[in-house]
Amino acid sequence: RRGHRRARQALAAALAGDLDDALRLADRLLATAAPPDRSEAAVVAATALAHRGHVGRSVELFRWSGTASAAAFAIVGGLATGDLAATTESPAGDPAGEPPTLHASAARLMANGVRESVTGPPTAALSALVQAAALLEPDGRAALLPDSPAALAALTAVHCGELEIAERVLHRALGAGVGGPLMARRHRLLQAWILMVRGEIHAAGERLATVTLDGRQLESRDQLFAAAIRMGIGRRNSDLGALKRGWGQALEAVVRHPVDLFTLLPLGELAIAGARLGDLARLEPYLQQGRALLDRLGNPPLWCVPLHWSGLHAAILTGEPTVADEHVAALLAAAGHSRYAAVVAAAGESWVEVLRGVVDPIRVEATARGLHDTGLCWDGARLAGQAAIRTADRRAMTTLLECARALQGRPSGGPGAQTPTTGASTARVAGPTQHGLSDREYEVAELVLAGLTYREIGDRLFISAKTVEHHVARMRNRLNCANRTELLALLRTLVADRASDTAGQPWPQRASR
Questions:
Q1: Which end of the chain has fewer CB atoms within 10 angstroms, the N or the C?
Q2: Distance (Å, rounded) from C-alpha 170 to C-alpha 134?
Q3: C-alpha angle 69/139/12, rounded to 5°?
Q4: Could you tell me if residue 119 is inside a domain?
């Protein structure tokens, strides 16, 4: 039958990632084909629309198509748009008696996993989604998916601080080709996200570069993640030029893809970048949509916590202590939900204390190491570094700098090296201002990180190249760095917040609770 052949063509186009052809063929079939082919065309169209951000229309088509798998995908889409009623819908069998294939079983588990992420414990959500991902591995290339259970399992794992689980499930999905080229890009983007969060910035950039090797333009959801990764890499490299260059594309990506539950993570990263650039106001309407979506779902902690974590850092950069306190209060309220929630709640509280000039080195180090252990390696190093530059205690400064260096993945010294708390180690950092480096050294550090040569830095600051070299050597000695690579990595931590008006100044003391 011609209708059946065209339905197969639409399916093949969608699996290959050619959503224009898939939508064109599917739309014609919906208008003219026999009922069985129209049902298949509805699934193709619904899948394509989900990738392009039209989740509401996608849900309608999935429900209309009448299969059990489609009913399960409708639940996932409904929850993604904040439809709490979707938590009570059942993805169980359809009137036609669809057989319990691997695809249908995986779809049901996928719906249950997303539902548990909203209403239940994170362990139940993660378990269901990982199981769904495993079911699709034997014949995953033929599975047409609006989103893959591996991708949702990875997102859930990232929200739980279980990055190793996220990495493994994505690796297996890519190896099995689950979802074909259409889903391969999403899986690689999530791999790049995890590398970025871990602080493996170069590797994250390399993984991001593989996403567009096939020459196809990314769909709107993938564009949003890619833009957020680029901005996240630029922020972690303290590369203000890269942030400025990428901001326009990032805003366009936000506009193109409506806010949903599964894009809150990149939206949060872009909020920090917007705050760093002094342009957060342009993202505020979308952040409000995200908060409203979470409100409709009853503010599930698994999805709320990362948004509050990014909101805290945006508030730090914009110099809004009251807003930061509100995010910390929300994190503390959710602390009992998971180990990850408890860690970031403690870190948030410690961070605002540091900004107010209260540095407890033991607590800060424990909190920073907690962030590192949940996969937030760069954040852990940055917290320790920020505390180091805000304490007047030389010994505490040395201890925290050593902690920051260790959390960045570099050894703190050889077998014969002195411990951070010895008098000799403290002497090595003698001479800095209260913030660890002088104002001139901060200027030099920022230009070094921007990639300028000593001569170019000298021209900018009206000093000789030899004087610049002297400043760099003194910073390396003061910060106890073994080589230039280690110095550059630590300087990124120390100057990360210098663009904020309040970065170097204690915040007003918080009112007692």
A1: C
A2: 11
A3: 75
A4: no
Interatomic CA distance for residues 102 and 105, integer angstroms: 5
Return the HEC string of 428-475.
Answer: HCCCCCCCCCCHHHHHHHHHHHCCCCHHHHHHHHCCCHHHHHHHHHHH
Q: How far apart, in whole angstroms, are the C-alpha atoms of residue 304 and residue 302?
A: 6
pLDDT digits (tens, 9 = 90+) for 19-68: 899 989 998 888 887 877 888 899 999 999 999 989 999 999 999 988 88
Asked, for residue 88, whether it belongs to a domain, the answer is no
* pLDDT given for residue 414 in this prediction: 37
Higher-pLDDT residue of 158 and 506 is 158
Give the pair of three-digit tokens for residue 256. Answer: 């193109």
Compute the distance between CA of residue 461 and CA of residue 443 in angstroms, rounded to an integer. 8
Q: Do the domain assignments include residue 353? A: yes
Produce one character per residue of 103-139: b if its CB has 16 or more CB atoms within 10 Å, e if not: bbbbbbbbbbbbbbbbbbebeebbbbbbbbbbbbbee
Q: What does the alpha-carbon distance between residue 208 and residue 190 come to, in Å, rounded to a whole number?
A: 9
**Structural domain contains residue 356:** yes
Number of domains in the chain: 1
Two tokens, residue 202: 């170069």
Block residue for tokens 């920073």 = 368
Residue 12: exposed, middle, or buried by beta-carbon count in 10 A (0-12, 13-18, 19+)? Answer: middle
According to DSSP, residue 237 is labeled T
DSSP 156-203: HHHHHT-HHHHHHHHHHHHHHTTTHHHHHHHHHHHHHHHHHHHT-HHH
Enclosing domain of residue 383? 327-413+420-425
Higher pLDDT, 388 or 151: 151
Tell me, what amino acid is at 113?
G
Query: Cα–Cα distance between 204 and 378 in angstroms, integer?
Result: 13
